[in-house]
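__Protein archive entry__

___
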Amino acid sequence: MSITLKGLRAFVTVLRYGSFTRAAGLLHVTQPALTVQIRQLEEALGLKLLDRTPHGAEPTTAGLEFARSLEPLLQELEHSVINLQDLAARRRGLVRVAALPSVAAGLLPMAMARLKTTHPNLKIRLQEAVTRQVYEQVRSDQVDIGIASDLSPGEAFTIEPLFRDQIVALLPPRHPLARRRSIALTHLAQEPLLLLETDSSIRQLVDDAFARIGKLVTPVQEVAYSSTLVGMARAGLGIALLPSSAAELRMAPELAARPLGPPAVGRKVTLIRRAGRSLSPAAEAFSEALREEVRRFEGVVPLKEC
Protein backbone atom coordinates (compact mmCIF):
# COMPACT_ATOMS: atom_id res chain seq x y z
CA MET A 1 0.00 0.00 0.00
CA SER A 2 1.41 3.40 -0.99
CA ILE A 3 1.75 6.52 1.14
CA THR A 4 -0.57 9.29 -0.05
CA LEU A 5 -0.51 13.03 0.46
CA LYS A 6 -4.07 12.78 1.74
CA GLY A 7 -2.99 10.33 4.44
CA LEU A 8 -0.02 12.49 5.47
CA ARG A 9 -2.21 15.58 5.72
CA ALA A 10 -4.75 13.65 7.76
CA PHE A 11 -2.10 12.53 10.23
CA VAL A 12 -0.62 16.02 10.68
CA THR A 13 -4.06 17.57 11.15
CA VAL A 14 -5.13 15.04 13.79
CA LEU A 15 -1.81 15.50 15.57
CA ARG A 16 -2.06 19.30 15.47
CA TYR A 17 -5.57 19.46 16.93
CA GLY A 18 -5.51 16.26 19.02
CA SER A 19 -8.94 15.22 17.79
CA PHE A 20 -10.23 13.00 15.01
CA THR A 21 -13.56 14.82 15.10
CA ARG A 22 -12.09 18.30 14.69
CA ALA A 23 -9.58 17.15 12.07
CA ALA A 24 -12.36 15.51 10.04
CA GLY A 25 -14.32 18.78 10.07
CA LEU A 26 -11.30 20.83 8.98
CA LEU A 27 -10.47 18.41 6.17
CA HIS A 28 -14.13 18.16 5.09
CA VAL A 29 -14.27 14.38 5.39
CA THR A 30 -16.25 12.07 7.63
CA GLN A 31 -14.62 10.76 10.78
CA PRO A 32 -14.72 7.12 9.55
CA ALA A 33 -13.05 8.20 6.28
CA LEU A 34 -10.36 10.01 8.25
CA THR A 35 -9.79 6.95 10.41
CA VAL A 36 -9.31 4.84 7.25
CA GLN A 37 -6.74 7.31 5.91
CA ILE A 38 -4.72 7.15 9.15
CA ARG A 39 -4.92 3.37 9.26
CA GLN A 40 -3.73 3.05 5.65
CA LEU A 41 -0.79 5.34 6.39
CA GLU A 42 0.16 3.28 9.46
CA GLU A 43 -0.07 0.07 7.44
CA ALA A 44 2.13 1.52 4.69
CA LEU A 45 4.75 2.57 7.26
CA GLY A 46 4.42 -0.54 9.38
CA LEU A 47 4.16 1.64 12.51
CA LYS A 48 1.41 2.90 14.78
CA LEU A 49 1.40 6.68 14.71
CA LEU A 50 -1.57 7.69 16.88
CA ASP A 51 -3.24 6.38 20.01
CA ARG A 52 -6.85 7.15 20.84
CA THR A 53 -7.22 8.23 24.47
CA PRO A 54 -10.15 9.51 26.54
CA HIS A 55 -8.78 13.00 25.92
CA GLY A 56 -8.46 12.65 22.15
CA ALA A 57 -5.62 11.49 19.92
CA GLU A 58 -1.98 11.44 20.99
CA PRO A 59 1.11 10.54 18.97
CA THR A 60 3.13 7.46 19.65
CA THR A 61 6.89 7.83 19.97
CA ALA A 62 7.25 6.87 16.29
CA GLY A 63 4.41 9.25 15.36
CA LEU A 64 6.05 12.16 17.17
CA GLU A 65 9.38 11.55 15.45
CA PHE A 66 7.66 11.22 12.08
CA ALA A 67 5.72 14.46 12.62
CA ARG A 68 8.87 16.48 13.37
CA SER A 69 10.28 15.76 9.91
CA LEU A 70 6.94 15.65 8.07
CA GLU A 71 5.36 18.99 8.94
CA PRO A 72 8.03 21.25 7.39
CA LEU A 73 7.96 19.12 4.24
CA LEU A 74 4.20 19.53 3.97
CA GLN A 75 4.50 23.27 4.54
CA GLU A 76 7.08 23.51 1.76
CA LEU A 77 4.87 21.44 -0.52
CA GLU A 78 1.86 23.64 0.25
CA HIS A 79 3.95 26.72 -0.51
CA SER A 80 5.00 25.20 -3.85
CA VAL A 81 1.41 24.37 -4.74
CA ILE A 82 0.29 27.92 -3.93
CA ASN A 83 3.08 29.29 -6.12
CA LEU A 84 2.01 27.07 -9.00
CA GLN A 85 -1.61 28.08 -8.52
CA ASP A 86 -0.53 31.73 -8.67
CA LEU A 87 1.28 31.03 -11.92
CA ALA A 88 -1.73 29.22 -13.37
CA ALA A 89 -4.06 32.03 -12.31
CA ARG A 90 -1.64 34.63 -13.79
CA ARG A 91 -1.22 36.31 -10.41
CA ARG A 92 2.55 36.31 -10.90
CA GLY A 93 5.15 35.38 -13.48
CA LEU A 94 7.80 36.74 -15.84
CA VAL A 95 7.56 37.06 -19.62
CA ARG A 96 10.79 37.49 -21.59
CA VAL A 97 10.18 39.22 -24.92
CA ALA A 98 12.43 40.13 -27.85
CA ALA A 99 10.92 42.60 -30.32
CA LEU A 100 11.76 44.76 -33.29
CA PRO A 101 12.58 48.33 -32.22
CA SER A 102 9.67 49.70 -34.28
CA VAL A 103 7.25 47.40 -32.42
CA ALA A 104 8.92 47.95 -29.06
CA ALA A 105 8.48 51.71 -29.36
CA GLY A 106 4.93 51.71 -30.71
CA LEU A 107 2.58 48.79 -30.18
CA LEU A 108 4.35 47.05 -27.33
CA PRO A 109 4.04 49.73 -24.62
CA MET A 110 0.27 49.76 -25.14
CA ALA A 111 0.10 45.98 -24.73
CA MET A 112 2.30 46.19 -21.62
CA ALA A 113 0.01 48.84 -20.13
CA ARG A 114 -3.04 46.67 -20.84
CA LEU A 115 -1.38 43.70 -19.15
CA LYS A 116 -0.48 45.80 -16.12
CA THR A 117 -4.15 46.75 -15.74
CA THR A 118 -5.46 43.19 -15.97
CA HIS A 119 -2.55 41.35 -14.30
CA PRO A 120 -0.60 43.88 -12.21
CA ASN A 121 1.88 41.36 -10.75
CA LEU A 122 3.08 39.96 -14.07
CA LYS A 123 6.47 41.27 -15.18
CA ILE A 124 7.86 41.74 -18.68
CA ARG A 125 11.55 41.77 -19.56
CA LEU A 126 11.94 43.37 -22.99
CA GLN A 127 14.90 43.23 -25.35
CA GLU A 128 15.03 45.14 -28.63
CA ALA A 129 16.65 43.32 -31.54
CA VAL A 130 16.63 43.08 -35.32
CA THR A 131 14.69 40.24 -36.90
CA ARG A 132 17.42 37.60 -37.13
CA GLN A 133 18.50 38.28 -33.56
CA VAL A 134 14.90 37.88 -32.40
CA TYR A 135 14.74 34.42 -33.98
CA GLU A 136 18.06 33.44 -32.45
CA GLN A 137 16.97 34.53 -28.97
CA VAL A 138 13.78 32.48 -29.28
CA ARG A 139 15.69 29.47 -30.60
CA SER A 140 18.22 29.58 -27.74
CA ASP A 141 15.53 30.03 -25.04
CA GLN A 142 16.81 33.48 -24.10
CA VAL A 143 13.23 34.73 -24.47
CA ASP A 144 9.78 33.16 -24.36
CA ILE A 145 8.29 35.18 -27.21
CA GLY A 146 9.68 37.03 -30.21
CA ILE A 147 7.99 39.71 -32.31
CA ALA A 148 9.59 40.16 -35.72
CA SER A 149 9.09 40.09 -39.47
CA ASP A 150 8.15 36.73 -40.93
CA LEU A 151 11.22 34.95 -42.30
CA SER A 152 9.43 31.64 -42.99
CA PRO A 153 12.03 30.01 -40.71
CA GLY A 154 10.84 26.41 -40.97
CA GLU A 155 9.88 23.80 -38.41
CA ALA A 156 11.98 25.09 -35.52
CA PHE A 157 9.48 27.85 -34.76
CA THR A 158 5.75 28.30 -34.33
CA ILE A 159 4.65 31.48 -36.10
CA GLU A 160 1.43 33.38 -35.43
CA PRO A 161 0.62 36.26 -37.81
CA LEU A 162 -0.01 39.50 -35.92
CA PHE A 163 -0.35 42.39 -38.33
CA ARG A 164 0.69 43.91 -41.62
CA ASP A 165 1.98 47.45 -41.96
CA GLN A 166 3.47 49.34 -44.88
CA ILE A 167 6.41 51.59 -45.55
CA VAL A 168 5.58 55.27 -45.74
CA ALA A 169 7.57 58.27 -46.89
CA LEU A 170 7.83 61.12 -44.41
CA LEU A 171 8.37 64.46 -46.11
CA PRO A 172 7.51 68.17 -45.87
CA PRO A 173 3.89 68.91 -46.83
CA ARG A 174 5.03 71.42 -49.48
CA HIS A 175 7.23 68.87 -51.24
CA PRO A 176 5.87 68.15 -54.75
CA LEU A 177 5.53 64.43 -53.95
CA ALA A 178 3.36 65.21 -50.91
CA ARG A 179 0.53 66.13 -53.30
CA ARG A 180 0.25 62.46 -54.29
CA ARG A 181 -1.85 59.94 -52.36
CA SER A 182 1.01 57.45 -52.74
CA ILE A 183 4.54 57.72 -54.07
CA ALA A 184 5.94 55.41 -56.73
CA LEU A 185 9.40 54.01 -56.09
CA THR A 186 10.60 55.33 -59.43
CA HIS A 187 9.90 58.89 -58.28
CA LEU A 188 11.33 58.29 -54.83
CA ALA A 189 14.59 56.91 -56.19
CA GLN A 190 15.52 60.37 -57.42
CA GLU A 191 15.15 61.92 -53.94
CA PRO A 192 17.61 62.20 -51.03
CA LEU A 193 16.58 59.32 -48.81
CA LEU A 194 16.99 58.85 -45.07
CA LEU A 195 17.10 55.14 -44.23
CA LEU A 196 17.69 52.82 -41.31
CA GLU A 197 20.90 50.81 -41.19
CA THR A 198 21.26 47.73 -43.37
CA ASP A 199 20.75 45.16 -40.59
CA SER A 200 17.17 46.32 -39.92
CA SER A 201 14.24 44.47 -41.48
CA ILE A 202 12.80 47.78 -42.72
CA ARG A 203 15.99 48.61 -44.62
CA GLN A 204 16.10 45.15 -46.16
CA LEU A 205 12.47 45.53 -47.21
CA VAL A 206 13.19 48.92 -48.83
CA ASP A 207 16.34 47.69 -50.59
CA ASP A 208 14.49 44.64 -51.96
CA ALA A 209 11.65 46.83 -53.25
CA PHE A 210 14.04 49.11 -55.13
CA ALA A 211 15.98 46.12 -56.45
CA ARG A 212 12.78 44.76 -58.01
CA ILE A 213 12.52 47.87 -60.18
CA GLY A 214 16.21 47.77 -61.00
CA LYS A 215 17.28 50.58 -58.69
CA LEU A 216 20.16 50.63 -56.22
CA VAL A 217 19.58 53.33 -53.65
CA THR A 218 22.34 55.07 -51.73
CA PRO A 219 20.84 57.05 -48.85
CA VAL A 220 22.14 60.46 -47.91
CA GLN A 221 22.04 59.27 -44.29
CA GLU A 222 21.56 55.88 -42.64
CA VAL A 223 21.01 55.64 -38.90
CA ALA A 224 20.11 53.15 -36.18
CA TYR A 225 17.00 54.80 -34.76
CA SER A 226 13.71 55.83 -36.35
CA SER A 227 13.54 58.93 -34.15
CA THR A 228 16.77 60.17 -35.76
CA LEU A 229 15.24 59.75 -39.22
CA VAL A 230 12.24 61.80 -38.16
CA GLY A 231 14.47 64.54 -36.80
CA MET A 232 16.41 64.66 -40.07
CA ALA A 233 13.21 64.79 -42.12
CA ARG A 234 11.95 67.67 -39.96
CA ALA A 235 15.21 69.48 -40.61
CA GLY A 236 14.71 69.12 -44.37
CA LEU A 237 17.62 66.75 -44.95
CA GLY A 238 15.64 64.30 -47.05
CA ILE A 239 12.70 61.90 -47.15
CA ALA A 240 12.55 59.31 -44.35
CA LEU A 241 11.16 55.83 -44.97
CA LEU A 242 9.50 54.24 -41.93
CA PRO A 243 6.86 51.61 -41.17
CA SER A 244 3.32 52.92 -40.73
CA SER A 245 3.23 51.36 -37.23
CA ALA A 246 6.23 53.37 -36.01
CA ALA A 247 5.41 55.53 -33.00
CA GLU A 248 7.97 58.04 -34.26
CA LEU A 249 5.59 59.10 -37.04
CA ARG A 250 3.49 60.84 -34.37
CA MET A 251 6.52 62.91 -33.36
CA ALA A 252 6.20 65.16 -36.39
CA PRO A 253 2.53 65.77 -37.26
CA GLU A 254 3.62 68.72 -39.43
CA LEU A 255 5.20 66.29 -41.93
CA ALA A 256 3.24 64.43 -44.58
CA ALA A 257 3.22 60.62 -44.52
CA ARG A 258 2.55 58.93 -47.85
CA PRO A 259 2.52 55.17 -48.59
CA LEU A 260 4.84 53.77 -51.22
CA GLY A 261 3.51 52.25 -54.40
CA PRO A 262 1.82 50.93 -56.25
CA PRO A 263 2.68 48.27 -55.55
CA ALA A 264 2.63 48.88 -51.81
CA VAL A 265 5.75 47.97 -49.84
CA GLY A 266 4.79 46.22 -46.63
CA ARG A 267 5.82 43.62 -44.10
CA LYS A 268 4.14 40.92 -42.05
CA VAL A 269 4.93 41.00 -38.33
CA THR A 270 4.54 37.77 -36.40
CA LEU A 271 4.54 36.34 -32.90
CA ILE A 272 7.30 33.73 -32.62
CA ARG A 273 7.98 30.90 -30.19
CA ARG A 274 9.85 27.62 -30.31
CA ALA A 275 7.95 24.80 -31.94
CA GLY A 276 6.62 22.19 -29.54
CA ARG A 277 7.00 24.43 -26.48
CA SER A 278 4.02 25.57 -24.43
CA LEU A 279 3.79 29.16 -23.31
CA SER A 280 3.58 29.89 -19.61
CA PRO A 281 0.28 31.34 -18.32
CA ALA A 282 2.04 34.72 -17.99
CA ALA A 283 3.22 34.57 -21.61
CA GLU A 284 -0.28 33.60 -22.73
CA ALA A 285 -1.68 36.62 -20.89
CA PHE A 286 0.86 38.88 -22.60
CA SER A 287 0.01 37.40 -26.01
CA GLU A 288 -3.69 38.07 -25.41
CA ALA A 289 -2.98 41.70 -24.47
CA LEU A 290 -0.83 42.08 -27.58
CA ARG A 291 -3.53 40.70 -29.89
CA GLU A 292 -6.08 43.04 -28.37
CA GLU A 293 -3.86 46.08 -28.93
CA VAL A 294 -3.21 45.05 -32.54
CA ARG A 295 -6.94 45.43 -33.18
CA ARG A 296 -6.82 49.01 -31.92
CA PHE A 297 -3.43 50.27 -33.04
CA GLU A 298 -3.22 52.92 -35.73
CA GLY A 299 -1.17 52.13 -38.82
CA VAL A 300 -1.53 48.34 -38.82
CA VAL A 301 -3.97 45.81 -40.23
CA PRO A 302 -4.52 42.66 -38.12
CA LEU A 303 -3.59 39.79 -40.39
CA LYS A 304 -6.64 37.73 -39.45
CA GLU A 305 -8.73 40.56 -40.89
CA CYS A 306 -6.78 40.84 -44.13
